[in-house]
Amino acid sequence: MADQTDTTVSVVLPTYNRAHTVRTAIDSVLAQSYEDFELIVVDDGSTDDTPAVVGDVSDPRVQYLRLPENRGANVARNVGIREANGKYIAFQDSDDVWRPRKLGLQVAALERAPENVGVVYTGYYRVNDGEKQYGPRNKETVAGDVHEEMLKGNGWFIPTAVAAVRRTCFDTVGLFDERLQRLQDWEMWIRISERYEFEFINEPLIEKRMQHDQQSIRSDTEAFVHAMELILSVYRDEFRAVNRLAQHQRQLGYQYLRNGNPLRGRRYFLRAMKNDCSAVSVAAAIAGMAGPGNYRRILKVHRLASERLRLSDGPLHS
Question: What pLDDT band is residue 310 in, cutting at 50, 70 and 90?
């Protein structure tokens, strides 16, 4: 990593073929009320007008690095981290928008927190077709030791762009796993939460714009199953300890169904049932035999039936 200077925060922004959104993302960082930062834009081999768009930004705090070929967001983030000069590192995505108080509130929280607090994350709005939904869902009070909660899954919990991280965290646990094209934030937070505590600012300080174009990694089920396979191989025992291994195996099985590999999907449903003989695992295994189109419908019926049973005075008559 670069030698630290007087810059307090380094903001790392990886981008790939986002010429139509990256300027808005950059401008929202430059508009922060807290001004002691550098912004490192890492172009992951874009083939559109990204170089010209970023080159048109005249703010001296912006540094532009261009990679010769597209290698993935984790490689780009790691390049930015290695070049970073700040004692704190924040992340921006090339299609997200920060609110002006975000960075200042996070820096203030990190400055007053003890050294064992490694990450300060914020609330956010997830914007999808004009509809805003607040995140994180059902985790509003999660702070301190979040490791067990993180093992349950990330989902709407801590997207990369809502986090500001002590630089020393990366010195301790390493950089982003460059084998992962999805779930990279989840895997990183699992590692960091093993060693450090997290703080939460319960305020929506980011708008995450959900993209639906073909290049979006969110729609890449092949990348998901590859990442989930790797994560399960590393953290299997930890997932089992918090009774979440079967849940993650069921999710992987469903993604294999979606990806046109029903044989492997059913194999994961059976593994989930072996690890957890609950009704939901049995229902998932049966639903998995019906193919991806029927899988969600069958599980929905099962969930509704389970909810009615929970609300009744006793078990249903056989």
Answer: very low
CATH of domain 9-209: 3.90.550.10
Residue with tokens 């080159």: 55
How many of the other CB atoms lie within 10 Å of CB of 10?
26
Single pTM value for the model: 0.86
Mean predicted lDDT score pLDDT of the chain: 87
Interhelix angle 292-311/279-288, nearest 10 degrees: 160
CA distance 182 to 72: 10
Q: Is the peptide bond before 136 cis (omega within 30 degrees of 0)?
A: yes
Tokens found for residue 109: 């929280």
Helix or strand holding residue 65 (H, E): strand 62-66
DSSP 28-48: HHHT-S---EEEEEEE-S--S
Question: In whole angstroms, what separates CA 118 from the centre of its chain?
Answer: 17
User: How far is residue 57's CA from residue 30's CA, in Å, rounded to a whole number?
Assistant: 10
Rounded distance, CA 278 to CA 243, Å? 11
- Residue 317 carries which DSSP code? P
Residue 205 CA, distance from chain mean position: 16
The residue-averaged pLDDT of 287-305 equals 59
**Which tokens sit at 268?**
């994961």
Q: Is 212 helix (H, G, I), strand (E, B) or coil?
A: coil
> In the 3-class helix/strand/coil scheme, how is 123-188 assigned residue by residue?
EEEEEECCEEEEECCCCCCCCECCHHHHHCCCCCCCCHHHEEEEHHHHHHHCCCCCCCCCCHHHHH
Q: Tell me the pLDDT tens digit for each residue of 65-107.
A: 999 999 999 999 999 999 999 999 999 999 999 999 999 999 9
By C-alpha distance, which of 184, 177, 133, 178 is closest to 158?
184
* Six-digit token string for 295: 């899988």
Q: Is the pLDDT of residue 304 over 60?
A: no
CA distance 26 to 237: 41
C-alpha to C-alpha distance for 194 and 148, rounded to whole angstroms: 9
Q: What residue ranges do the domains of the chain occupy?
A: 9-209, 243-311
